[in-house]
Amino acid sequence: MTAIKATDVDRFVGKPDPRMPVVLVYGPDSGLVRERVNALVKASVDDVNDPFSFVRLEGEDLTANPSRLVEEAHTVPLFGGRRAVLVRPGSRNIAGAVEQVIAAPSDECRIIIEAGDLKKSSPLRAMVEKAKAAAALPCYVDNAAALGRLIDDEMTEAGLAISLDARNALIGLIGGDRAASRNEVRKLALYARGKERVEIDDVLAVVADASALALDGVLDATFAGRTAEVETEFGKARSGGSSPAAIISAAIRHVANLHKMRLAIDDGDSADFAMKRGAPPIHFSRERKVGEALRLWSATGLLRAMNQLAEASLEARRNAALAEAIAQRALLSLAVSARRREG
């Protein structure tokens, strides 16, 4: 079996095993997938601009001609040197083409497959995980420890220190996509240029939308059935500048995401897996409360909640003076339904 453990993936990427010339990089974090693919390409060829050394193939290329991948793998570079092929399957089934190259791998060419989120039952993933000449590298959403390392690395690169409060706050604000997280940290470092240390005010000024954070609090409390917290969190959202209309709109978007995740669970996915595939993925700091909501609400109940919120939105527009009371009442009603397991 050559399914690389998530904790060992970076070590493999830093020094790819020559006994495994076929590498599948997949997972829900598309930014991390791309980052690791780029690192593997860099480690496999001397010049990515040399068409004799580095070839890119799309899924349709292999669907039309499955043998092309093994042919490319055994092509000798015109001027010698290392060679690599990058494959992006997209929605195409390339298992047949990969099966051929696994059966006849080349010691002189690395095959790198950049895929999306593949279930364990996926033919491509299952094949690669069983093959001795191939490696499957999962790219899951970063946890707190991984985000902390990312922050530390970027701050060190920028010649900056970061206070503990600022670091902890930043960890709570990024995640879900490695590329997006790295961009946010780099944006923060650029903002703090000329300072010795990044403070929490810098994080809040650059990365955090305070109103968005407050919205997460009231939405998570509502759908987890935490009635005692809804009023407090609603007050925080209003203090943060969120209008009643914005709160209701955010609740509707949240319900839509919960509904998609609930359907995925009903189809056999685990709650953890469904949250990682959310649109957007659920940040690890919110997983406990969102997990509660997914246990309390059925798909049908969430559709009813969406209709209830749509009615509240219309009522609030018609009665602007009462909009705050209407929004708060709608959220409390949903929290009570969740607590009673009426969802």
Characterize the structure shown.
- A 5-stranded parallel sheet has the order 2-3-4-1-5, with helices on both faces. It has a two-stranded parallel sheet with strand order 6-7.
- α13 runs antiparallel to α16 (299-318).
- The chain is globular, with a radius of gyration of 24 Å.
- The chain folds into 3 domains: 6-138, P-loop containing nucleotide triphosphate hydrolases (Rossmann fold), CATH 3.40.50.300; 144-206, Helicase, Ruva Protein, domain 3 (Orthogonal Bundle), CATH 1.10.8.60; 210-339, Zinc Finger, Delta Prime, domain 3 (Up-down Bundle), CATH 1.20.272.10.
- It contains 17 helices and 7 strands.
- The mean pLDDT is 88.
- The chain is α/β, with parallel strands linked by helices and 343 residues long.
Show the helix and strand layout.
Blueprint: H1 9-14, E1 22-26, H2 30-44, E2 54-58, H3 59-64, H4 68-73, E3 83-88, H5 95-103, E4 109-114, H6 123-130, E5 134-138, H7 144-157, E6 161-162, H8 164-173, H9 178-191, E7 197-198, H10 200-206, H11 210-223, H12 227-239, H13 244-266, H14 271-276, H15 287-296, H16 299-318, H17 323-339
Parallel strand pairs: 1-4, 1-5, 2-3, 3-4, 6-7
Helix pairs in contact: 5-6, 7-8, 7-9, 8-10, 11-12, 11-17, 12-17, 13-16, 13-17, 16-17
